[in-house]
Amino acid sequence: MATEPFLPEPMTLFERIIARQIPAKIVYEDDQVLAFHDIQPQAPVHVLVIPKKAIPRIGEALVHDQALLGHLLLKAADVARSLGLESSGYRLVINHGLDGGESVPHLHCHLLGKRPMNWPPG
């Protein structure tokens, strides 16, 4: 019986940025997360903060990802401070699924600032 050869899952856009296969304007990096400017900004400051571990979306994170998720949010706040957003304010957004606006199946946090944010969003 012949078996199909193993084909790895294609890399997401963000995995390719992490691997430096696609250039990005990086604002922060450590061993767990990467932050870079969005190429289609929705605010004067629009940075994506992503875990280097490939987690497709927040609803698929596991209990053992808890420390990484906390690190992701703390680093998003550090990046906001470094970009001068702390005094005026900023918004952090995590999308899940098509109706949530997810466009890349790799967990990421949008950091938006330097303009007033409306409520409700969307």
Which labels suit this protein?
alpha+beta; 122 residues; globular; HIT family, subunit A; 5 strands; 20% strand
- Helix-strand topology string: HEEEHEE
CATH class descriptor name? Alpha Beta
| Biggest sheet record | 5 strands, antiparallel
CATH architecture: 2-Layer Sandwich
Q: Average pLDDT, to the nearest integer?
A: 92
CATH superfamily: HIT-like
Number of domains: 1
Any idea what the shape is?
A: globular
User: Strand fraction band?
Assistant: 15-25%
Helix share bin: 10-25%
Q: State the strand order across the main sheet.
A: 1-2-3-5-4
Integer-rounded radius of gyration? 16 Å
CATH topology: HIT family, subunit A
Number of strands: 5
Q: List the uncertain runs.
A: none
Count of DSSP H/I helices? 2
Secondary-structure content class: alpha+beta
Taking the alpha carbons of the first and last residues, their distance comes to 52 Å
